Description:
By secondary structure, this protein is mostly helical. The protein contains 13 helices and no strands.
Amino acid sequence: MGWVLLIVLIPLSALIWKAQSLPWARAWEVLTDPRTLSAFEVSFGCAVVAALVNGLCGPVVAWTLVRYDLPGKRILDALVDIPFALPTAVAGITLTTLYSPNGWMGSWLEPMGIHVSYHLSGIVLALVFVGLPFVVRTVQPVIEEFPAEAEEAAALLGASRMRTIFRVILPALLPAIGTGALLSFARCVGEYGSVVFIAGNMPMKTEILPLLIVTRLEEYRYSEATAIAAAMLAVSLVLLLVGNRLQSRLARGRSR
Length: 256
Protein backbone atom coordinates (compact mmCIF):
# COMPACT_ATOMS: atom_id res chain seq x y z
CA MET A 1 0.00 0.00 0.00
CA GLY A 2 2.88 2.34 0.71
CA TRP A 3 4.34 1.66 -2.72
CA VAL A 4 0.96 2.31 -4.40
CA LEU A 5 0.61 5.49 -2.36
CA LEU A 6 4.04 6.68 -3.46
CA ILE A 7 3.85 6.01 -7.20
CA VAL A 8 0.10 6.34 -7.87
CA LEU A 9 -1.98 8.16 -5.28
CA ILE A 10 0.36 11.03 -4.46
CA PRO A 11 0.93 12.07 -8.12
CA LEU A 12 -2.79 11.78 -8.87
CA SER A 13 -3.63 13.81 -5.77
CA ALA A 14 -1.16 16.49 -6.86
CA LEU A 15 -2.81 16.57 -10.30
CA ILE A 16 -6.28 17.02 -8.82
CA TRP A 17 -5.04 19.63 -6.34
CA LYS A 18 -3.40 21.65 -9.11
CA ALA A 19 -6.52 21.42 -11.26
CA GLN A 20 -8.61 22.85 -8.41
CA SER A 21 -6.55 26.05 -8.52
CA LEU A 22 -8.51 26.95 -11.64
CA PRO A 23 -11.93 28.52 -10.96
CA TRP A 24 -14.82 26.21 -11.82
CA ALA A 25 -16.21 28.60 -14.41
CA ARG A 26 -12.84 28.85 -16.14
CA ALA A 27 -12.30 25.07 -15.92
CA TRP A 28 -15.69 24.46 -17.54
CA GLU A 29 -14.82 26.95 -20.26
CA VAL A 30 -11.53 25.14 -20.93
CA LEU A 31 -13.12 21.69 -21.01
CA THR A 32 -15.99 22.73 -23.26
CA ASP A 33 -13.75 24.58 -25.70
CA PRO A 34 -14.30 23.13 -29.22
CA ARG A 35 -10.59 22.32 -29.54
CA THR A 36 -10.60 20.41 -26.25
CA LEU A 37 -13.80 18.52 -27.14
CA SER A 38 -12.34 17.61 -30.52
CA ALA A 39 -9.17 16.29 -28.84
CA PHE A 40 -11.30 14.23 -26.45
CA GLU A 41 -13.20 12.77 -29.39
CA VAL A 42 -10.03 11.93 -31.30
CA SER A 43 -8.17 10.36 -28.35
CA PHE A 44 -11.01 8.31 -26.89
CA GLY A 45 -12.61 7.44 -30.22
CA CYS A 46 -9.37 6.16 -31.74
CA ALA A 47 -8.47 4.33 -28.50
CA VAL A 48 -11.83 2.52 -28.50
CA VAL A 49 -11.44 1.53 -32.16
CA ALA A 50 -7.88 0.32 -31.57
CA ALA A 51 -8.95 -1.69 -28.50
CA LEU A 52 -11.73 -3.35 -30.51
CA VAL A 53 -9.32 -4.20 -33.34
CA ASN A 54 -6.83 -5.64 -30.86
CA GLY A 55 -9.64 -7.53 -29.11
CA LEU A 56 -10.44 -9.23 -32.42
CA CYS A 57 -6.92 -9.76 -33.79
CA GLY A 58 -5.03 -10.39 -30.54
CA PRO A 59 -6.73 -13.73 -29.74
CA VAL A 60 -6.08 -14.92 -33.30
CA VAL A 61 -2.38 -14.11 -32.95
CA ALA A 62 -2.23 -15.76 -29.52
CA TRP A 63 -4.05 -18.87 -30.77
CA THR A 64 -1.68 -19.18 -33.73
CA LEU A 65 1.41 -18.87 -31.53
CA VAL A 66 0.14 -21.48 -29.06
CA ARG A 67 -1.54 -24.09 -31.25
CA TYR A 68 0.56 -24.13 -34.42
CA ASP A 69 4.19 -25.00 -35.12
CA LEU A 70 5.39 -22.35 -37.53
CA PRO A 71 8.84 -21.73 -39.02
CA GLY A 72 10.53 -19.11 -36.86
CA LYS A 73 7.82 -19.35 -34.22
CA ARG A 74 10.10 -18.10 -31.45
CA ILE A 75 11.05 -15.07 -33.52
CA LEU A 76 7.39 -14.30 -34.21
CA ASP A 77 6.60 -14.68 -30.53
CA ALA A 78 9.39 -12.25 -29.64
CA LEU A 79 8.20 -9.74 -32.25
CA VAL A 80 4.91 -9.40 -30.37
CA ASP A 81 6.82 -7.69 -27.55
CA ILE A 82 8.54 -5.17 -29.86
CA PRO A 83 6.13 -2.35 -28.86
CA PHE A 84 7.17 -2.89 -25.23
CA ALA A 85 10.88 -2.55 -25.98
CA LEU A 86 10.81 -0.04 -28.83
CA PRO A 87 10.74 3.66 -27.89
CA THR A 88 7.36 4.99 -28.91
CA ALA A 89 8.91 7.90 -30.79
CA VAL A 90 10.87 5.45 -32.94
CA ALA A 91 7.67 3.54 -33.65
CA GLY A 92 5.91 6.77 -34.65
CA ILE A 93 8.71 7.86 -36.97
CA THR A 94 8.85 4.39 -38.56
CA LEU A 95 5.10 4.24 -39.16
CA THR A 96 5.09 7.76 -40.57
CA THR A 97 7.94 6.90 -42.93
CA LEU A 98 6.21 3.76 -44.14
CA TYR A 99 2.73 5.23 -44.61
CA SER A 100 3.51 8.77 -45.74
CA PRO A 101 2.37 9.59 -49.31
CA ASN A 102 5.89 8.87 -50.62
CA GLY A 103 6.64 6.00 -48.22
CA TRP A 104 6.91 2.30 -49.05
CA MET A 105 3.31 1.51 -48.11
CA GLY A 106 1.82 4.97 -48.56
CA SER A 107 2.90 5.20 -52.19
CA TRP A 108 0.69 2.17 -52.89
CA LEU A 109 -2.23 3.18 -50.68
CA GLU A 110 -2.54 6.87 -51.59
CA PRO A 111 -3.44 6.24 -55.28
CA MET A 112 -6.26 3.97 -54.07
CA GLY A 113 -7.64 6.75 -51.90
CA ILE A 114 -6.49 5.15 -48.63
CA HIS A 115 -4.91 7.85 -46.46
CA VAL A 116 -2.99 6.83 -43.36
CA SER A 117 -0.39 9.40 -42.35
CA TYR A 118 -1.85 12.65 -40.99
CA HIS A 119 -5.33 11.14 -40.75
CA LEU A 120 -7.37 9.41 -38.04
CA SER A 121 -6.60 6.05 -39.63
CA GLY A 122 -2.90 6.67 -38.91
CA ILE A 123 -3.67 7.33 -35.25
CA VAL A 124 -5.64 4.07 -35.03
CA LEU A 125 -2.80 2.20 -36.74
CA ALA A 126 -0.25 3.52 -34.24
CA LEU A 127 -2.53 2.66 -31.30
CA VAL A 128 -3.13 -0.86 -32.62
CA PHE A 129 0.63 -1.30 -32.83
CA VAL A 130 1.28 -0.28 -29.22
CA GLY A 131 -1.80 -2.02 -27.77
CA LEU A 132 -1.69 -5.43 -29.46
CA PRO A 133 0.81 -7.06 -27.04
CA PHE A 134 -1.51 -6.43 -24.09
CA VAL A 135 -4.22 -8.60 -25.62
CA VAL A 136 -1.88 -11.29 -26.92
CA ARG A 137 0.01 -11.71 -23.64
CA THR A 138 -3.22 -11.72 -21.62
CA VAL A 139 -4.97 -14.34 -23.77
CA GLN A 140 -1.95 -16.54 -24.48
CA PRO A 141 -1.69 -18.22 -21.02
CA VAL A 142 -5.43 -18.97 -21.06
CA ILE A 143 -5.11 -20.69 -24.43
CA GLU A 144 -2.14 -22.69 -23.18
CA GLU A 145 -4.24 -23.97 -20.27
CA PHE A 146 -7.35 -24.58 -22.39
CA PRO A 147 -7.69 -28.39 -22.87
CA ALA A 148 -7.64 -29.57 -26.46
CA GLU A 149 -9.90 -32.43 -25.32
CA ALA A 150 -12.80 -29.97 -25.14
CA GLU A 151 -12.48 -29.27 -28.85
CA GLU A 152 -12.18 -32.97 -29.62
CA ALA A 153 -15.27 -33.76 -27.56
CA ALA A 154 -17.27 -31.09 -29.39
CA ALA A 155 -16.14 -32.50 -32.74
CA LEU A 156 -17.08 -36.04 -31.70
CA LEU A 157 -20.54 -34.80 -30.71
CA GLY A 158 -21.01 -33.43 -34.22
CA ALA A 159 -20.30 -29.73 -33.70
CA SER A 160 -18.92 -27.84 -36.65
CA ARG A 161 -15.69 -25.88 -36.33
CA MET A 162 -17.51 -22.54 -36.12
CA ARG A 163 -19.94 -23.89 -33.51
CA THR A 164 -17.00 -25.19 -31.47
CA ILE A 165 -15.34 -21.77 -31.62
CA PHE A 166 -18.42 -19.81 -30.55
CA ARG A 167 -19.86 -22.28 -28.02
CA VAL A 168 -16.77 -23.93 -26.51
CA ILE A 169 -13.60 -21.90 -27.11
CA LEU A 170 -14.76 -18.29 -27.16
CA PRO A 171 -16.73 -18.37 -23.84
CA ALA A 172 -13.60 -19.61 -22.06
CA LEU A 173 -11.47 -16.85 -23.58
CA LEU A 174 -13.87 -13.91 -23.27
CA PRO A 175 -12.78 -12.78 -19.75
CA ALA A 176 -9.13 -12.73 -20.83
CA ILE A 177 -10.00 -10.98 -24.11
CA GLY A 178 -11.95 -8.35 -22.17
CA THR A 179 -9.06 -7.81 -19.77
CA GLY A 180 -6.58 -7.49 -22.63
CA ALA A 181 -8.83 -5.07 -24.52
CA LEU A 182 -9.21 -2.90 -21.41
CA LEU A 183 -5.46 -2.84 -20.90
CA SER A 184 -5.01 -1.97 -24.56
CA PHE A 185 -7.53 0.86 -24.25
CA ALA A 186 -5.82 2.23 -21.13
CA ARG A 187 -2.48 2.16 -22.94
CA CYS A 188 -3.84 3.76 -26.11
CA VAL A 189 -5.81 6.61 -24.60
CA GLY A 190 -2.71 8.25 -23.16
CA GLU A 191 -0.30 7.35 -25.95
CA TYR A 192 1.82 10.23 -27.21
CA GLY A 193 5.14 9.26 -28.78
CA SER A 194 3.95 6.89 -31.51
CA VAL A 195 0.96 9.07 -32.42
CA VAL A 196 2.37 12.59 -32.48
CA PHE A 197 4.40 11.98 -35.66
CA ILE A 198 1.81 10.15 -37.75
CA ALA A 199 -1.21 12.21 -36.66
CA GLY A 200 -0.23 15.49 -38.26
CA ASN A 201 -1.44 17.28 -35.09
CA MET A 202 -4.04 19.43 -36.82
CA PRO A 203 -6.31 21.16 -34.27
CA MET A 204 -9.98 20.14 -34.59
CA LYS A 205 -8.96 17.23 -36.82
CA THR A 206 -6.11 14.98 -35.64
CA GLU A 207 -4.94 16.61 -32.40
CA ILE A 208 -4.85 14.20 -29.44
CA LEU A 209 -5.35 15.07 -25.79
CA PRO A 210 -1.76 14.39 -24.63
CA LEU A 211 -0.49 16.78 -27.31
CA LEU A 212 -3.01 19.44 -26.26
CA ILE A 213 -1.84 19.08 -22.65
CA VAL A 214 1.81 19.46 -23.72
CA THR A 215 0.85 22.51 -25.78
CA ARG A 216 -0.81 24.13 -22.77
CA LEU A 217 2.27 23.40 -20.65
CA GLU A 218 4.55 24.99 -23.26
CA GLU A 219 2.28 28.06 -23.13
CA TYR A 220 2.74 28.14 -19.32
CA ARG A 221 -0.99 27.56 -18.84
CA TYR A 222 -0.40 24.94 -16.18
CA SER A 223 -3.82 25.10 -14.54
CA GLU A 224 -5.57 24.54 -17.87
CA ALA A 225 -3.26 21.63 -18.67
CA THR A 226 -3.96 19.96 -15.33
CA ALA A 227 -7.71 20.56 -15.72
CA ILE A 228 -7.67 18.76 -19.08
CA ALA A 229 -5.49 15.99 -17.62
CA ALA A 230 -7.82 15.56 -14.65
CA ALA A 231 -10.86 15.33 -16.93
CA MET A 232 -9.03 12.82 -19.10
CA LEU A 233 -8.19 10.77 -16.02
CA ALA A 234 -11.80 10.87 -14.80
CA VAL A 235 -13.23 9.71 -18.13
CA SER A 236 -10.63 6.94 -18.39
CA LEU A 237 -11.39 5.68 -14.86
CA VAL A 238 -15.15 5.65 -15.54
CA LEU A 239 -14.70 3.69 -18.76
CA LEU A 240 -12.33 1.23 -17.09
CA LEU A 241 -14.69 0.73 -14.15
CA VAL A 242 -17.62 0.12 -16.50
CA GLY A 243 -15.51 -2.34 -18.49
CA ASN A 244 -14.41 -4.18 -15.36
CA ARG A 245 -18.02 -4.33 -14.19
CA LEU A 246 -19.20 -5.82 -17.45
CA GLN A 247 -16.31 -8.27 -17.41
CA SER A 248 -17.17 -9.40 -13.86
CA ARG A 249 -20.79 -9.97 -14.84
CA LEU A 250 -19.66 -11.95 -17.86
CA ALA A 251 -17.38 -14.12 -15.70
CA ARG A 252 -20.17 -14.73 -13.15
CA GLY A 253 -22.63 -15.61 -15.89
CA ARG A 254 -20.16 -18.09 -17.36
CA SER A 255 -19.53 -19.71 -13.95
CA ARG A 256 -23.28 -20.28 -13.52
